[in-house]
Design a protein that fits this description.
Blueprint (H helix, E strand, L loop, with lengths): L7 E5 L1 H4 L2 H9 E2 L2 E2 L3 E5 L5 H5 L10 H6 L6 H18 L5 H28 L11 H26 L4 E4 L12 H8 L9 E5 L8 H5 L3 H12 L4 E6 L8 H4 L9 E3 H9 L7 H9 L4 E5 L8 E4 L10 E13 L9 H11 L3 E7 L3 E7 L2 H14 L4 E13 L8 H11 L6 E3 L6 E7 L3 H14 L11
Parallel strand pairs: 1-4, 1-7, 4-6, 5-6, 7-9, 8-10
Antiparallel strand pairs: 2-3, 9-10, 11-13, 11-14, 12-13, 14-16, 15-16
């Protein structure tokens, strides 16, 4: 790829992609003209990946889930038909020309037919005792994921070409590719011969590679592709376009007039937000950009004139709470009277959590008690409880549903966040079950009843952001 001019690498999420027709005029083009020097990495249209894999929030199985539990059943084929219908509806919402719609229809038919053939053949093969379907499930998951990104990328290129943009389809999904590539070579070979000064590459968020992105990142793979592409090509900036600004709280909880756009923060804050389920960017993707010295910007895709929020390594100009957020957690508490002075409890507890794939959000301990605040299903947490009870039969293992509200900022030094936060929660009649302030002064955590999370966030935002020393908050759309 010709990188003689400084360019940006920009990512668009699935929900925004479903409004690609609007983005054509607001983002891909400026004042009716193509603006080159930009590489776009796109996700599947909204809802498509849920249908291909499983619903991200409810867990309802898609093609992958039904195929994994098929046991000779063909219900997954009906699910694949549903995906094909949803894909056709999605590209009809962004394509106007009949020839383009026909081309996109043909693309969907070819890809879904190919996937169906692969799955049928694999199902037949694994009916023999020498072959195990479980050995191939990760590959199947990756193949199905690639269908969604390839489709949205192809449709976007058609839309842009019809508008006079010299857009180029860059398919990293490895479809019918007989060669094996690691991620770097997959990207560099696909971009060979591309001149960003006169072309607009539209790149699939999924990249098939030897590393197997889903093994480590599962559905966070598109940000890994995005960050690696930005690092490899020496981008001047990496930009993530969302449907909203990265702001001081959820405007639905505290009011649109109360939140303020962050404007500038650092990767440390981004990591804290990721830990709380409010990902500005996947931590591993952030690491790639940070090490390559590529600054990250998060913008509102539908406000192209707004610079959004810059994320880099710069320290805060002055201490302040920048954002208040939170999530529902489950507290797993291990109490053992004889724990004090004995080593091994921590390691054993972590081993059980790791074995069950439980994500730890926070932790607290004292002489005879270890509590992990985790994000996991009740079913999984019950399994952890049973393993701990079996491992320590004389211990008291308890579970409790809670919520964790957190105030985050690059520098909270001297802000008395813990004391002010406790006072605000008391005034809002919000019981505090636990609270902790790590020594690095980048976040303060408040554990509250699960049904009081929204009220806690609103109270903390009012006291720590709206009543802060910087004056009234800037309005954010």
């Amino acid at each position: 790829m010709d990188t003689r001019s400084k360019h940006t690498v920009e990512k668009i999420g699935g929900t925004s992609m479903s409004r690609a027709h609007e983005l054509r005029d607001r983002l891909f083009m400026r004042e009716g003209k193509a603006e080159y020097g930009r590489i776009f990495v796109v996700s599947a249209f909204g809802g498509i990946t849920n249908l291909l894999l499983e619903h991200k929030k409810t867990g309802q199985p898609g093609v992958y889930g039904r195929f994994a539990n098929a046991d000779g059943d063909t219900g997954w084929q009906a699910a694949l038909d549903e995906v094909a219908d949803a894909m056709r509806q999605a590209h009809r919402a962004v394509l106007d020309d009949g020839a383009d719609i026909a081309a996109a229809d043909a693309f969907v038919a070819e890809r879904t037919h190919g996937a169906r053939s692969c799955l049928v053949d694999l199902q037949r093969l694994c009916s023999y005792g020498h072959f195990r379907l479980s050995d191939h499930m990760l590959i199947i998951r990756e193949m199905l994921s690639g269908l969604g990104e390839a489709h949205s990328t192809f449709a976007t290129v058609l839309m842009l070409q019809r508008a006079g943009v010299n857009a180029r389809f860059i398919d990293l999904s490895g479809w019918r590719d007989e060669e094996q590539h690691d991620l770097d070579s997959r990207i560099t070979s696909a971009l060979e011969g591309v001149d960003v000064t006169s072309e607009m590459p539209i790149v699939t968020g999924y990249a098939q590679c030897l590393e197997g992105l889903m093994r480590e990142f599962d559905r966070g793979y598109s940000e890994v592709t995005f960050s690696r592409l930005a690092a490899l090509t020496g981008a001047a900036e990496a930009i993530i376009h969302k449907e909203f600004h990265l702001s001081s709280a959820d405007p639905n909880l505290v009011g649109a007039g109360a939140v303020r756009k962050l404007g500038h923060t650092n990767y440390d804050v981004a990591d804290q937000l990721s830990n709380l389920g409010m990902e500005a960017i996947h931590p591993k993707a952030a690491k790639t950009l940070r090490q390559a010295e590529v600054p990250l910007r998060v913008t509102n895709a539908f406000e192209p004139g707004d610079p959004g929020t810059l994320i880099d390594d710069a320290p805060a100009e002055k201490p302040a709470v920048e954002i208040v957020t939170g999530l529902e957690v489950k507290a797993i508490e291990l109490f053992e009277q004889d724990m004090v002075g004995v080593k091994g409890y921590d390691a054993a507890f972590l081993d059980v959590l790791t074995r069950h794939g439980v994500r730890i959000v926070s932790k607290a301990s004292n002489a005879n008690t270890i509590t992990h605040y985790v994000e996991a299903s009740l079913k999984t947490v019950r399994r952890v409880e049973k393993d701990l009870a079996r491992l320590y039969p004389s211990a008291d293992v308890s579970l409790r549903s809670m919520a964790l509200a957190s105030a985050v900022g690059r520098d909270l030094g001297g802000q008395r966040v813990l004391a002010r936060g406790l006072a605000a929660l008391e005034a809002a009649d919000c019981e505090v079950l636990a609270a902790q302030q790590p020594s690095r002064a980048v976040d303060v955590q408040f554990l509250v009843p699960r049904d009081r999370l929204d009220a806690a966030i609103a109270a903390l935002h009012g006291a720590l952001v709206e009543d802060g020393k910087e004056g009234r908050p800037k309005l954010v759309a």
